[in-house]
Amino acid sequence: MGSAASTIAVVIAPFTSNIFTLCLFNFIFGLGRALLAIAVDSMVPVLSTGFESILMNVTHFMYGVGSFAGQTAYGRMLSDGIPWRTIYLYLVIFFAVSVILTLMIKTTDIRIKNETGFKKKELYKNPMVYMFVAAVTFGLLTEAVINTWFISYMRGSYGLNPANAASYASVFFLTFALGRLFGGFIINKTGNLKGLKLFLLAAAACLIAGLQLKREGLMLIAASGFFISITFPTLMVIIGSAFRQNSSFAIGLIVTISNILYVVIFNITGVLNDLLGTYAAFYAAPVSIICCILMLTAIGKKEKKSIL
Question: N or C: which end of the chain has fewer CB within 10 A?
Fold first, then answer.
């Protein structure tokens, strides 16, 4: 369904001529991407018992590869004078192939026996859900602050020219991709929750030290991408293991609420950027990481109590 909805949206895009069709495209494409993300994040823990964090992080690494390759290709085509509508027509081919490949995928029919029965109302009342919502929200916020404000921080605080600022940003995205590729293997050895907290502590240390060192610390901030990268994929694995009886619904609920909260808080960071300046506002990144670590610690304690 996700692949089909995304393909329909891409077919609509070249014929967008007014605000209604633009909104229709964004709605259908967003729905398709959300369905794909929930399906993948739900299936990976089931299909990779014993190495969930490895496969989840490698899967999300492929998202990054596709995004990087796509941005490079689109930029070249636009610079060559190819209209954006034509580019979307080319994209239809790739999305159609994804639909065919999705139909060809055969997964093992695994059913988890639920002795007590699944009730959505019980999930809504489960405090663990809202702990995970907070953890995912702060994880998303950390990525977004660095992705969006890192170049502004460098240029606004230290007057770097676009080329130099872009070089540091490129290092961040490179380390981010490497973290997605190799981080899962490390997490698989340390344990998901413990490993994620260690990675986040390292990321917070890089960011705080980088901010304190000011211009000389820009490379440390760029290097934090390696540790931040595994946050979202690993959280999806942890959520899947915490709600085994209804992981798809739990992931969908948590990610939906988290995205809403993330948009609200991220807009607040934009206001802070204007009011306090780029340097002070960039502290939102390490603060978000620390908040995420605190929520993960609370989740770990809650899980221990439920086991006892």
Answer: C
Per-chain mean pLDDT for the chain: 80
The whole-number average pLDDT for the span 147-170 is 83
CB within 8 Å of 32: residues ≥ 6 apart:
1, 2, 3, 4, 5, 6, 7, 8, 9
Cβ partners under 8 Å of residue 144, min gap 6: 262, 266
Report yes or no on 111 lying in a domain: no
Query: What's the pTM value of the predicted model, to 2 decimals?
Result: 0.73
Cα 210 from chain centroid? 23
Domain total for the chain? 2
Residue at 75: amino acid letter:
G
Q: What are the angstrom distances between the C-alpha of 63 and each of 54, 262, 285, 300?
A: 15, 20, 23, 29
Among 73, 104, 135, the domain boundary falls at: 104
Largest CA distance in the chain: 65
